[in-house]
Amino acid sequence: GTTDNYNTKATERLHIDYTKDAYRATNKKEILQQMTRWLERHKSMAAFDLVLQWRHGEIPKPRLMKSVLNTPLSPGVYLTKNPSMHAMLFHILENWFGAAHFKDALGEFIVNQLQPTSQHQQAACNLNANVLRDLEAVDVWYRIKFVVPNLQVD
Known about the structure:
By secondary structure, this protein is mostly helical.
């Protein structure tokens, strides 16, 4: 049942629109992928329809949604506070994610950050070998947020 003064009509309607219609549009093979694609396309078409209505003067200019914190992020790269996976071993990174030679590449990256203008190739190689000598695992983030400056001109 529902709580007092509420009903399920709205959610039933959404179920019809977003599930039943999407299912009917599939060929009944790989249903989830087809339904997801159908929903994404219908959302895109609805958004494009709003843009066309605005361009034809039928509706006012849509307001930009404000962020939850109402403070824009400065340009940069942002990670969540906690990684998606803690202490993932290098051989698992190679097998699961296809990150061949990840430890070597990470070592070279760190050396280049520490000595960007190093002209002594042997010293750089020795430093690379020592930087990650005892390291066997790294934390992994599945998602990163890249914030770029707003280049849109009103």
